[in-house]
Amino acid sequence: LYIGLCLVPWINLFFITNTYSIKLLYMLYIICGNMALFTAHLVSIPQVKIYNILLQFANLKPKYTPIVNLLFLFMALKYRRDKHISLKLDIERNTIKFMMHLPCISVTTLFKVRIFLNQYQPPKYNAKFEVRIQKHSHSTSELIIQKKTNCLVLQLPGGGYEVGFCQMYRKSAELIHNKTGFNVASLDYRVSPNKYPAALEDALEAYQFYQKNYDEIIFSGTSAGGNLALALGLKLQELQIKLPKAMVLMSPWTDMAAEGSSYKEKMYIDHLFSVDKNLKFDRKLIFKSGYASGDLKNPFLSPKYGQYDNFCPVLIQVGGDECLLDDSISIFDKLKKFNSKLHIYPGMFHSFQHIAPYSKEGKQAWNEVQEFIAVL
Fold it and tell me: At the top level of its lineage, which domain of life is listed (predicted)?
C-alpha cells in the first residue's frame, strides 16, 4: 500500500490530465506526506531531522514527492528505533497509537462498535472442527469441537467488561484449538451496563457446566478476561470447588483501583491506552469500567488484592510498554509459588497476541502457551 501510494502520482501524470486528476494528485501527495511523517515515528531523533529536511524539499518540489517517500521508507527500514521488534509489529503498534490519538477515537468509542465486532464469520480454510452454541442462564458459549477429548480450554475474552465476545477472540479460539488439540469454549459473559457480579456468576455457571463433561479444564483470559479468570479462581477457592488445571493470562487486568506505578509511567508510551504527551497525568484519564461497583479493591474485582491458597499454575504474558504491566508483576508475586511463569515481552502493547498473532512476537507468545500446556 505504501509503495503503491508512492507510485500512483507518477502513473496519474501519464494517464490522467483533467482538473479532477490534479485534485486527486494533490490529495495523494498529502497522503504520502502524512505517511512519511507517520514513518518518522519509527526512527530515532537524528533521522527525524533528516526527514524534516526531505519534507521541506518535497514541499518546494512537489513532483519529487514519490522519490522522497521512497527515501522515507528506506530510512524507516534501515534506521528504525526498535530493531529488536519485528517490522510488522513495529508498524502495527505505531498504527494503533496513531489511530488512538485521532480526535474522534478513544478506547470508549472502540468498545462501542459492538455490532461490527460481534458479526459471526464462519471458520476459514475448510476447518475440520464443529462449532456449537451452548446457552446458559444469562450467557452463551461457543464451543469448538473436533474430537472426543477430556480436555477443554475455557476462554474468557477481554473487552474491559464493556464489549462482549467478538470475532477477534473467535480467531483466538481457533488458534488455541490448533495449538493444543483441546476443545475450546469461549464464554460471552454479561458486561456493562450489567454490574458486578454478573460476569462472575456467568463464568461460575459455565465452568460447573463443563466440569460435567471434561476431566481437565484450563482457563484462558485476556485483559478483563484475565481479571475474570482470577476472580473465578478465587470464588472456586472460597466455595472449595476443584480449580482448573492451569490458567493462561494475557495482559490480565488485576487492579481496577489502578494503583500500580506503570499506570503513570507507561501512560505516554502505551500504544493502545496512551494519552497525548502534553497532557498532565491525572487519574481521571485512567479507563474505568461501568461493570465495577462498590469497593474497587474487592478481590473479585481486583484479584491483585486476593489471598491465594493451593492455586493452580499460571502463565502470565504482558507487554513491556503496557499501563497494565504492574498488574501482571504484582499478581505474579502471589502466584509464583504455584509453579507459575511471567514473561514480559519488551516493547509490546496490550493484547498483542490477539491483535498480531502471526507476527514474530505473536507466534513466540502462542508457542509459549502451547509449551506451557504440553508439560502440565
Answer: Eukaryota
Residue tagged 482457563 (cell numbers):
219
Count CB-CB contacts under 10 A for residue 122: 7
Q: What residue type is assigned to position 269 of the chain?
A: I
- Domain residue limits, the chain: 2-81, 109-374
DSSP letter assigned to residue 310: S
Residue 240, SS3 per DSSP: coil
Determine the Cα–Cα distance for residues 72 and 79; give it in Å rounded to an integer. 10
Residue 55 C-alpha cell reads as 519534507
Strands (E), 194-277: 216-222, 246-250
**Cβ–Cβ under 8 Å, residues 136 and 226:** no
Q: With the C-alpha atoms ordered 240, 244, 246, 247, is the resulting torsion angle positive or negative?
A: negative
pTM of the full predicted structure?
Answer: 0.79
Task: Tell me the CATH number for domain 109-374.
Answer: 3.40.50.1820
Which three cell numbers, joined as nine digits, stand for 21? 486528476
pLDDT tens digits for 287-345? Answer: 678 899 889 999 999 999 999 999 999 999 999 999 999 999 999 999 999 999 999 99
Measured distance CA(20)–CA(7) in Å, rounded: 18
Residue type, 172: S
8-state DSSP, 305: G
Residue 169 grid coordinates: 477472540
Q: Tell me the C-alpha to C-alpha distance, in Å, between residue 345 and each of 4, 198, 349, 352.
A: 33, 32, 9, 10
Phi then psi for residue 124, to 5 deg, are: -95, -175
